[in-house]
Amino acid sequence: QVHLVESGGGLVQPGGSLRLSCVASGGEFSLLVMGWYRQTPGKERELVATITPGGGGRTDYIDSVKGRFSISRDHFEKAAYLEMVSLEPEDTAVYYCHAKSFRGEEYWGQGTEVTVSS
Predict the structure, then answer these.
(1) Nearest-CA neighbor of 19 among 90, 68, 77?
(2) Which residues contact residue 51 at a Cβ distance below 8 angstroms, ignoring those fewer than 6 apart?
(3) Lowest mean pLDDT: which of 12-16, 56-60, 102-106?
C-alpha cells in the first residue's frame, strides 16, 4: 500500500510559479510510475504529466503545459515534484499526485488546490 501526500498549492497571480510536492511512503518508490492529474468542478480528472521509474525517468506532458510545467522525482526523498511556471488562470484546479505500480495498482493523494487569479 502506497500513501501519497501532496503539498505546495496556493493562490498565485497569472504568470507566477508554484512547485507541488508529493511524498510517497509504504511502497517501492523506485518502481512506481508517478504522475500529476488535475480536476476542476464539473470536469473529468485530467492527466497533466508523468515520469517513469528509474533515475533517468522519461517524462510526458499534455500539450497545454509543455514548456511551462516540469515533473521530476527524487528517489532519496521518495518524492515527486511538479514545477509550474508562467501559470495561467486555466491552470486553476485541484492537483492530485498519482502512483502506479508494475502490477497495475493505483494510488492517489488527497489533492492540493492551485488558484491562478489576479
Answers:
(1) 68
(2) 33, 34, 35, 57, 58, 59, 71, 72, 73, 80
(3) 56-60
